[in-house]
Queue: 2 jobs
Job 1
Amino acid sequence: GRYDDGVSKRTGYPTIGDPEDTELNRAQISYESDVVDVTVGRQRIQLGNMRFVGNEDWRQNEQTFDAARVDLNLVEDLTLTYVYLEQVNRTFGDNAANGRYQSDSHLGEVTYAFTPNFSAKAYSYLISLDEAPTVSTANYGLRLMADFPLGDAVTLSTAAEYAHQTDYDNNTTDQSLDYYRAEANLAVDSWTLMLGAEVLGSDGQRGFSFPIASNHGHNGWADVFASKTPAEGLVDLWVGATVDFGKVGPFKSIAATAIYHDFSSDRGSIDFGQEVDLGLKAKLPGGFGVGLVGETYGGADTLTDTNKVSLYLTYAL
């Protein structure tokens, strides 16, 4: 009980959004073929890099969706995806005031692979949430992804994305916001070097929102900006590296990650601080895995310095 779980609102303690709860995460019926995949029911949905729609599986109770989803592969290298979203089952569970969102949302994607190394995704996410009308938004965007083999065991992977967000359905605010993202990852043998920038636009009253995304892992692991984008918007510049040490002793593999973030506002030239994220994960025989992650955030006058350490265990059949 020595933390604020997002439901209890324990003042004076850090917020860790994992309240005690018991939930049914998945109950679905699926059909799969070479041409069409259909899933109906309570399901896990991960679209793209989960920046707009994801299952937030870092939390103890993941975010799932009561939805109908259709994926079509009618033409080679072309994929069409449509999702009708009826309810969002959030990570906070039934005991929270907004533990669920009633929804009338339509999510669409068109992905085409021009070559094995270059693809494009156009998307339209029309998000309508009864309990959160101020983040009911229409989002239209384009993401380009390209890989450049530079030699033996050397590959440069790049991505560029733009999206525009406006008010939608029951949202009575008048908003028009832009989103930009560019990233490059250079893989050299067991090393991967990362460089990126993300801009969450602002109109001076609100920032670009992601109400049904997997926000953990974006804009730092400490989740300082996970619940809400600052009204002034957010600019996130990051650089990092991952190294895979391979088999070490009893471990099947060990990998380490370090990422540095520099945060500022989209409007007003506000310094929102810096963050360092460190991670270590290992695979054990028998399908077990273990991970240790730590985050330290600070340097902003208007936000709370945050330090977190998490230890987790995984098992996969």
Job 2
Amino acid sequence: MTSPESGSQNKNISYAKLDFDGEVLEDCVFYDCSFSRCNFQFAEIRNCDFKKCKFINCNLSLAKFDNTKIINVDFIESKLLGINWNTAGVVIIAVFKGCILESNSFSDMNLTKVKFEKCSLKESVFSNSKLQKVKFSECDLGQCQFHQSDLSYADFSTSRNYFMSADSNKLHQAVFSLPEAVSLLANLDIKLK
């Protein structure tokens, strides 16, 4: 199977086992394409559009997305370590299912149309982001940082290991469950008995 080249228009194509490790991919459009078991580790993806695409069992660790549109994209059981998503653009519309999204940065973004299902988001940063109505379904949020973010109506009820400050985030009508919700009291300098 041929790899897509920079500047190409790609529609309804299924790619499998491609290796873009450390390569540059720019000015491409992908519409309704799927990528299965592909390696994008350390790749630089510039000025590309991904619409209605799927990444299945792919490695996108430390990939750099520069000015790239991610619209209605599914990431399924993929490895996405150390990605700074805000260089892609202000808005992404995506579903992450069973992914490893550790040490990611989601700063200064609108993530209201993003879903996280059964993902590990350990040590990721959500700073100055809109996360209204986002559902974190069965996610591990260990050591995640939520700062100056709008988490109104966000659902954390089935997730674990989260901590966020009510002083530095908007938590209006956010949904939590016990015993995990006790972590919200940690920054209040109170004692529980």
